[in-house]
Specification:
The complex is a heterodimer.
Chain A lengths: L1 H28 L1 H4 L6 H9 L5 E2 L5 E7 L5 E5 L5 H4 L2 E2 L3 E2 L1 H5 L1 H4 L7 H10 L7 E4 L3 H11 L4 E6 L6 E7 L7 H10 L8 H4 L9 H11 L7 E3 L4 E3 L2 E3 L10 E3 H6 L3 H22 L26 H8 L9 H12 L3 E3 L4 E5 L5 E4 L4 E4 L3 H16 L14 E7 L8 E8 L6 E7 L5 H17 L2
Parallel strand pairs in A: 1-6
Antiparallel strand pairs in A: 1-2, 2-3, 4-5, 6-14, 7-8, 7-19, 9-12, 10-11, 13-16, 14-15, 17-18, 18-19
Helix pairs in contact in A: 8-17, 11-13, 13-14
Chain B lengths: L1 H5 L2 H24 L7 H22 L7 H19 L4 H22 L9 H18 L1 E3 L2 E7 L2 E4 H26 L1 E4 L2 E4 L5 H16 L3 H19 L2 H21 L1 H11 L10 H13 L17 H4 L1 H8 L1 H24 L4 H25 L17 H18 L8
Helix pairs in contact in B: 2-3, 2-4, 3-4, 3-5, 4-5, 4-15, 5-17, 6-7, 7-9, 7-16, 7-17, 8-9, 8-10, 9-10, 9-16, 10-11, 12-14, 14-15, 15-16, 16-17
The chains are: A alpha+beta, B mainly alpha.
């Protein structure tokens, strides 16, 4: 029997060794995946135990902080409601959203610090302290934008055209992220969609603000010179439709490119788009970021020229030329268009995060300005700045004017169907000598861009330029 | 008194090591979970005193018995007590009581066993007792968690399959020791294949049927695997025939396949085993949560009392290993597996040194029961096999199981004091 017992002993030993194989499989090979499964209660508990990093505005103001909670652990405190949709929230019941989600790696302290530090802190079982994040947000501009927009559903985005830094980003209506656990059920059903970030995920027809893109394409492709002159006796007929010559002062026989832009003559831009062809318009629009997944610090919906699967015919091209057609554009995208014009045609990478700092204040990452690409020639950009100045000085953009500052802008009044109130748009840049801010404003069903959106843009420019 | 001072110094020093480890773990547990509703220090102290008393009793009753088995099992029992306090503090006092009862049973058994050989005469009584208990349970048993495993008198409930493990080992050791030579010699040839003589195997076939009935009546997949596994192990060692292993394993597979197709509960367990994450909200919740716990343990563990294994349903009975793997990490889990392997290998050494066939088979049966329990439940916790309700020996919460395991330990200790150097 000895031989059999020795064999059985060997088999039993092997079976015990196989158990250690199971441990290695679950604790090493599969551990990373299991530790991140949404159903794993440790994922949520870890966020409550973590002293997450602080989120600062560009001027050092605290936007989000972690405070010790009554029952142990930490609690997130949100100090700026106007940034709610962008900062997001952290809820053990409803998950994580916005920057709290996309910056989780940094805020929870899972990066930064050497592997050795991680092991030491594991051994000491320290409550982890997350890294701090400094945003590009300027609270003064943010506050002005939020106040000007008020409770009206819509969005305001302000960008520094030279760096791509987002100076203000407002989505209204907003909510109180400090009450997310209590309010989420109601907020999710709210028809005003407060949890939805209109600035980055809203998809609106841009109306006449898109004429900036059409004009850039016409100038860059060479189909129209900056001194081109237009006439509009009876509208522009295309494919059985007639596009009207609205906006031209009575008695005007012909007019230049700048006034076609300032007066926002739909027929002229429709004809312009058809004349240059879809290729030229698509090329410039794509150079400006349309149809492209632009990397950003929070989810940014791709702005579309056309519904998926469609292609341009002359009627659609004509309608797109003056900002209708099938365009679906985010407010941030329109701010990028204005910013590219302001920055001599160079499109800068938009960003919300300026730097990541360790709890000791050491800078772990700094996001230096980066160009995406040249979207139009410097000459075209300069010409468009002139057009935009004309639009504010002589056209419909007057309510965005700031005393003592040369402001450029473009109105938009986007139609969303018969009988529905129009979306009010405005894009603006200032000061024109050397622009330091580009703004896009949309007020959902707000009415006329010149009446409703332009004053909001003006208020943002005033705050930004210290007037 | 002389014997107390003279003998078993190895065991005494190893027990000091166990005491030091227990005290360190209690301090760590108190630091991690200061609001635990149980007096950690009192429980630990009572436990260590009970083990010390048992050690002194063994010194008097069996001075020549193996000196490593008691310290190793005391270490396992200490880990068990600490983890029951940590996972299900309300049951900690009962676990402590059962450890005390178990140690008393161990000492009593040690005193009564004598030269052990007399047990051989009671093999059929053991078999009949096992059958009777099973029938009683099937008829009068109390159903808990869908399995009819419990026999109660008043408020005292006993898990019958635990006692059946012991009775089965006594029967098999006696029966096979009687027929060992016949089993090895008598061969019937059938188309060139040598088969064991059928008449000698009839009682074995009966056991297969009985284990299958355990599966059907008592809905206890784990006990079936355990009883069948031990039968197979002893049959193989006694007969020296690999054919038994092949036939036996095939029979178990057939058993399980039949059960799979006939009974929803077996099917459910196996489906959950194959696809745990696809039903992590429902039937797979328990094993999924256990695997999350194991994964979270990583190499060094979350720290004693610092894991989240309490979210696993029935963690203190069926998933203590997952909790240990989370709190103590791979380091601790490897150590625990090594500790079980050491107990088993030490037990096999006792087996090999037995002067009689009966002693050898009895020791092997006890070791086999402990080894198979540890293997089946740890493998189940790691989703290597379907999960079963088997206890982790000396660690899981459960009185019947603790009691019987201490008796198995007593048998091994007694047999080890009868060792000769017949075989080395």
């Amino acid at each position: 029997m000895t031989k059999e017992i020795r064999r059985a002993a060997a088999a039993i030993t092997l079976a015990f060794v196989a158990l250690t194989g199971g441990l290695i499989w679950w604790q090493i090979v599969r551990a990373g995946a299991l530790n991140q499964q949404p159903g794993n209660p440790r994922v949520i508990a870890a966020t409550e135990r973590t002293d997450r990093g602080t989120i600062f505005a560009a001027n050092g103001a605290v936007l989000v902080s972690s405070e010790p909670a009554a029952g142990g652990g930490y609690q997130r405190i949100y100090h700026d409601r106007t940034l709610a949709a962008t900062l997001g929230y952290l809820s053990t019941r409803y998950g994580v959203a916005g920057l709290e989600d996309t910056l989780n790696r940094h805020l929870s302290g899972q990066t930064g610090g050497s592997a050795r530090d991680q092991i030491v802190s594991d051994l000491l079982r320290d409550a982890p302290r997350g890294n701090d994040v400094v945003l590009t947000i300027e609270p003064r501009i943010q506050a002005a934008a939020a106040e000007a927009l008020g409770d009206r559903p819509g969005a305001v985005v302000a960008i520094d055209p030279r760096t791509g830094a987002v100076l203000a980003i407002v989505s209204a209506p907003t909510y109180d992220p400090n009450r997310i656990d209590l309010d989420a059920a109601r907020l999710l059903l709210d028809p005003g969609r407060p949890l939805f970030n209109r600035a980055t995920q809203g998809q609106y027809p841009p109306g006449s603000t898109f004429k900036t893109v059409t004009a850039a394409a016409a100038l860059d492709s060479g189909t129209h010179a900056r001194d081109a002159r237009f006439r509009c006796p009876s509208g522009y007929a295309v494919g059985g439709f007639v596009i009207a010559c609205k906006g031209i002062p009575p008695g005007t026989r012909d007019f230049d490119f700048a006034h076609a832009f300032a007066w926002s003559v739909n027929a002229t831009f429709a004809e312009m788009a058809v004349k240059m062809g879809a290729g030229a318009l698509i090329q410039t629009a794509r150079a400006l970021g349309f149809e492209e997944r632009i990397p950003f610090d929070i989810p940014l919906t791709v702005s579309r020229l056309l519904q998926p699967g469609r292609s341009f015919d002359d009627v659609l091209l004509a309608n797109t030329g003056f900002g209708q057609g099938e365009l679906a554009v985010s407010p941030l995208q329109m701010a990028l268009v204005a910013a590219a014009v302001a920055n001599d045609g160079m499109l800068m990478q938009p960003r919300l995060v300026y730097e990541i700092r360790s709890p000791d204040g050491e800078v772990l990452e700094r996001h230096e300005p980066a160009a995406i690409r040249r979207a139009m020639s410097p000459e075209t950009a300069a010409t468009l700045r002139g057009f935009m100045e004309t639009a504010v000085r002589e056209g419909f953009g007057g309510k965005a004017a700031v005393p003592g500052v040369r402001v450029g802008g473009k109105t938009g009044t986007a139609e969303i169907g018969a009988g529905a109130q129009t979306h009010a748009w405005f894009i603006a840049i200032a000061p024109l000598e050397q622009p330091s801010i580009a703004v896009a404003v949309v007020v959902e069903r707000g009415g006329q861009g010149s009446e409703v959106a332009a004053p909001i843009a003006g208020a943002v420019l005033k705050a930004a330029l210290g007037r | 008194m002389g014997v107390l001072l003279r003998e078993r110094w190895q065991e005494r020093s190893l027990l000091l090591f166990v005491a030091a480890g227990t005290i360190a773990a209690m301090a760590e547990l108190e630091g991690a979970l200061p609001e635990l509703p149980v007096d950690i220090w009192a429980a630990g102290l009572v436990f260590l005193l009970a083990v010390t008393a048992a050690h002194l009793a063994v010194t008097v009753l069996a001075p020549r018995a193996d000196q490593t088995l008691l310290p190793m099992t005391a270490m396992l029992a200490a880990i068990g007590l600490i983890f029951v306090m940590r996972l299900e503090p309300d049951q900690a006092m009962r676990q402590l009581q059962w450890n005390g009862i178990g140690l008393v049973a161990m000492v009593t058994a040690l005193a009564l066993l004598g030269d052990v050989q007399w047990l051989r005469r009671y093999k059929y009584i053991a078999a009949a007792g096992g059958l009777g208990l099973m029938l009683l349970t099937a008829v009068f048993g109390r159903e808990i968690n869908g399995s009819r495993l419990w026999l109660g008198i008043g408020s005292f409930y006993f898990q019958v399959t635990e006692l059946m493990k012991l009775l089965l080992v006594i029967f098999l050791a006696g029966y096979l020791a009687d027929r060992r030579l016949l089993l090895r010699a008598a061969v019937r040839r059938w188309r060139g294949v040598s088969l064991p003589a059928l008449p000698y195997l009839a009682p074995m076939g009966l056991i297969w049927v009985l284990t299958f009935l355990v599966l059907i009546w008592q809905r206890d997949l784990g006990a079936t695997l355990l009883l069948a596994g031990v039968t197979l192990l002893l049959l193989y060692v006694a007969s020296g025939r690999t054919a038994f292993v092949i036939v036996g394993v095939s029979l178990v597979i057939i058993d399980v396949l039949i059960a799979y197709h006939l009974f929803g509960y077996v099917q459910g367990r196996i489906d959950v085993w194959l696809h745990p994450f696809s039903q992590s909200d429902a039937a797979g919740y328990q094993i999924t949560q256990a695997l999350y716990a194991v994964a979270n343990g990583s190499v060094l563990g979350a720290g004693l009392g610092r894991g989240m294994a309490t979210v696993i349903p029935a963690v203190h009975t069926d998933f203590v290993f997952a909790a240990i793997a989370e709190d103590l990490g791979m380091t601790g889990a490897f150590g625990l597996i090594a500790l079980y392997l050491l107990v088993v290998l030490r037990g096999l050494r006792v087996t090999l040194r037995q002067p009689t066939d009966f002693g050898m088979l009895l020791a092997l049966g006890c070791v086999g029961i402990l080894a198979l329990q540890a293997l089946v439940i740890i493998a189940g916790n790691l989703a290597l096999i379907p999960i079963t309700g088997i206890t982790l020996p000396f660690i899981s919460y459960g009185g019947s199981s603790l009691l019987i395991n201490y008796v198995l330990l007593a048998v091994l200790l007694r047999l080890s004091s009868l060792e000769t150097d017949r075989i080395t």
